[in-house]
Amino acid sequence: MKFSAFLRSVLLCLCLLPGISAAQQTILVFGDSLSAAYGIPRESGWVNLLQQELQRSHPQYRVINASITGETSTGGLRRLPAVLNQHKPGIIIIELGANDGLRGAPVKDIAANISALIEQSHKAGAKVLLLGMQLPPNYGASYTVPFKALYPKLARKYHVTLVPFLLEGITPEQFQADNLHPVAQGQPRIMRNVMQKLQPLL
User: Fold this and answer.
1) 25, 56, 127, 199: most buried by Cβ count inside 10 Å?
2) Nearest-angstrom CA–CA distance, 28 and 62
3) 3-class SS at 39?
4) To 5 degrees, how large is the angle CA 22–CA 24–CA 27?
5) Known catalytic residue: 21?
6) Residues 6 or more apart from 71 whose CB is under 8 A from it?
7) Considering the domain boundaries, does residue 196 fall inside one?
8) How distant, in Å, are the alpha carbons of 63, 66, 94, 110, 149 from that of 77?
9) What are the E-state strand segments in 12-90?
10) pTM, whole model, 2 decimals?
11) Which of the residues 33, 35, 67, 73 is marked catalytic?
12) Domain range for residue 93?
């Protein structure tokens, strides 16, 4: 009887220690302006909506948004080690590459950077959800087609879960004047696109 009480006390203390199982409960969103709620109230962005959804369905998870407007895959690669060390996520959602593409960076360089992001995330013990992106058609098929293809190729190579296109289902009127960033009304659809693929990882 005394031993059982002692064991229960030990287990309770372990559960209360800072950092115990924290990695399994943190989802890190690592992206650019599409995830940083550019041009809309931050609380209206899809990342905040995802946190609200998880509070209802999987309250053991918290969402950390480490997205920065204007971020490229190169910049993300420089930032990621410190961010992983700080938050120790169990799941990381990678949403990068669009800014590289808009600047015309070589597709092979974008793929190499995102590959390194995935490898670093796996090395840190995190599951990866990769968010696919596409470019406007005025960039030309010779560039937009291989750009679009790099995401499924990397998902197959590293056996990670993929959202084929983050903005799937967003209608023309749901974009801001720049035709790149969805307005607040489009954010719930983005959240559902992500949640559908995130669900099996939880």
Assistant:
1) 127
2) 9
3) coil
4) 95
5) no
6) 31, 32, 33, 79, 96, 99
7) yes
8) 20, 13, 11, 11, 21
9) 26-31, 62-65
10) 0.88
11) 33
12) 22-201
Do 49 and 65 contact (CB within 8 A), yes or no? no
Paired tokens of 79: 């930032």
Average pLDDT of the segment spanning 67-72: 98
Per residue in 100-123, pLDDT tens? Answer: 999 999 999 999 999 999 999 999
Residue from 187, 147, 186 nearest 46 by CA: 187
| Residue among 32, 35, 67, 181 flagged as catalytic | 181
Q: Is 33 a catalytic residue?
A: yes
pLDDT, tens digit, for every residue of 16-35?
444 444 445 999 999 999 99
Give the sheet arrangement for strand 91-95, strand by strand: 62-65, 26-31, 91-95, 127-131, 161-163
Longest dimension (CA), the chain: 74
Counted domains in the chain: 1
What CATH number should be reported for the domain holding residue 95? 3.40.50.1110
Which residues, listed in sequence order, are joined to residue 130 by a DSSP beta bridge?
94, 162
**Tokens 């992983």 — which residue?**
84
Distance CA 187, CA 50 (A): 10
Judge whether residue 199 has pLDDT over 70. Answer: yes
Q: Does residue 1 belong to any structural domain of this protein? A: no
Is residue 26 a part of any domain in this protein?
A: yes
Is 73 a known active-site residue? no
